[in-house]
Recover the amino acids of this structure.
Protein backbone atom coordinates (compact mmCIF):
# COMPACT_ATOMS: atom_id res chain seq x y z
CA UNK A 1 0.00 0.00 0.00
CA UNK A 2 1.28 3.42 -0.90
CA UNK A 3 1.94 6.07 1.73
CA UNK A 4 1.06 8.86 -0.70
CA UNK A 5 -2.66 9.20 0.28
CA UNK A 6 -1.69 9.21 3.97
CA UNK A 7 0.89 11.92 3.29
CA UNK A 8 -1.78 14.03 1.56
CA UNK A 9 -4.09 13.62 4.54
CA UNK A 10 -1.25 14.67 6.85
CA UNK A 11 -0.56 17.69 4.65
CA UNK A 12 -4.23 18.70 4.68
CA UNK A 13 -4.35 18.38 8.47
CA UNK A 14 -1.19 20.44 9.00
CA UNK A 15 -1.54 23.08 6.30
CA UNK A 16 -2.21 25.86 8.82
CA UNK A 17 0.80 24.93 10.94
CA UNK A 18 2.98 24.84 7.84
CA UNK A 19 1.70 28.24 6.72
CA UNK A 20 2.27 29.68 10.21
CA UNK A 21 5.85 28.38 10.21
CA UNK A 22 6.51 29.86 6.78
CA UNK A 23 4.94 33.15 7.88
CA UNK A 24 7.22 33.16 10.93
CA UNK A 25 10.26 32.72 8.68
CA UNK A 26 9.11 35.58 6.41
CA UNK A 27 8.37 37.90 9.35
CA UNK A 28 11.78 37.12 10.87
CA UNK A 29 13.49 38.03 7.60
CA UNK A 30 11.51 41.27 7.31
CA UNK A 31 12.22 42.34 10.90
CA UNK A 32 15.88 41.28 10.90
CA UNK A 33 17.31 44.78 10.38
CA UNK A 34 15.18 46.39 13.11
CA UNK A 35 15.14 43.69 15.78
CA UNK A 36 17.79 41.14 14.92
CA UNK A 37 17.77 39.24 18.22
CA UNK A 38 13.99 38.79 18.30
CA UNK A 39 14.01 37.94 14.59
CA UNK A 40 16.72 35.33 15.13
CA UNK A 41 14.72 33.65 17.90
CA UNK A 42 11.58 33.71 15.74
CA UNK A 43 13.50 32.27 12.80
CA UNK A 44 14.95 29.44 14.90
CA UNK A 45 11.53 28.64 16.40
CA UNK A 46 9.80 28.67 13.00
CA UNK A 47 12.39 26.46 11.34
CA UNK A 48 12.38 24.07 14.31
CA UNK A 49 8.58 23.87 14.18
CA UNK A 50 8.65 23.11 10.45
CA UNK A 51 11.33 20.43 10.95
CA UNK A 52 9.34 18.87 13.82
CA UNK A 53 6.25 18.69 11.63
CA UNK A 54 8.21 16.96 8.87
CA UNK A 55 9.80 14.49 11.29
CA UNK A 56 6.45 13.73 12.93
CA UNK A 57 4.84 13.15 9.55
CA UNK A 58 7.59 10.77 8.49
CA UNK A 59 7.37 8.91 11.80
CA UNK A 60 3.58 8.55 11.91
CA UNK A 61 2.92 8.14 8.16
CA UNK A 62 5.93 6.25 6.79
CA UNK A 63 7.75 4.53 9.65
CA UNK A 64 5.19 3.53 12.28
CA UNK A 65 2.60 1.77 10.05
CA UNK A 66 5.28 -0.63 8.82
CA UNK A 67 6.56 -1.49 12.29
CA UNK A 68 5.74 -4.90 13.78
CA UNK A 69 4.72 -5.59 17.38
CA UNK A 70 1.97 -3.89 19.35
CA UNK A 71 3.98 -3.48 22.57
CA UNK A 72 6.97 -2.00 20.78
CA UNK A 73 4.64 0.28 18.82
CA UNK A 74 2.98 1.50 22.02
CA UNK A 75 6.38 2.28 23.52
CA UNK A 76 7.50 4.05 20.35
CA UNK A 77 4.35 6.18 20.25
CA UNK A 78 4.71 7.09 23.93
CA UNK A 79 8.39 7.98 23.63
CA UNK A 80 7.91 9.91 20.39
CA UNK A 81 5.02 11.82 21.96
CA UNK A 82 7.16 12.81 24.92
CA UNK A 83 10.12 13.84 22.77
CA UNK A 84 8.00 15.80 20.29
CA UNK A 85 6.09 17.46 23.14
CA UNK A 86 9.35 18.50 24.79
CA UNK A 87 10.68 19.92 21.51
CA UNK A 88 7.42 21.81 20.93
CA UNK A 89 7.79 23.29 24.42
CA UNK A 90 11.24 24.54 23.36
CA UNK A 91 9.66 26.13 20.26
CA UNK A 92 7.08 27.95 22.41
CA UNK A 93 9.81 29.02 24.83
CA UNK A 94 11.78 30.52 21.93
CA UNK A 95 8.68 32.37 20.74
CA UNK A 96 8.03 33.78 24.21
CA UNK A 97 11.69 34.79 24.47
CA UNK A 98 11.46 36.51 21.07
CA UNK A 99 8.42 38.48 22.22
CA UNK A 100 10.12 39.53 25.46
CA UNK A 101 13.30 40.49 23.60
CA UNK A 102 11.49 42.52 20.95
CA UNK A 103 9.24 44.46 23.33
CA UNK A 104 11.63 47.38 23.73
CA UNK A 105 12.31 47.76 20.01
CA UNK A 106 10.39 50.45 18.13
CA UNK A 107 9.24 48.95 14.83
CA UNK A 108 7.65 52.10 13.39
CA UNK A 109 9.61 54.36 11.08
CA UNK A 110 8.42 57.57 12.73
CA UNK A 111 10.61 58.86 15.57
CA UNK A 112 9.18 58.92 19.06
CA UNK A 113 8.77 62.49 20.31
CA UNK A 114 8.61 63.03 24.03
CA UNK A 115 6.88 66.12 25.36
CA UNK A 116 7.69 67.32 28.72
Amino acid sequence: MSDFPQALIWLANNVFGILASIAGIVVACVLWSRASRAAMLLLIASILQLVLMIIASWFYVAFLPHHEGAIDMAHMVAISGLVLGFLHAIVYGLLIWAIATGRGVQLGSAPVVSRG
Notes: The two ends are 74 Å apart (CA to CA). Residues 4-102 form one domain. The mean pLDDT is 83. The CA atoms of residues 14 and 108 lie 33 Å apart.
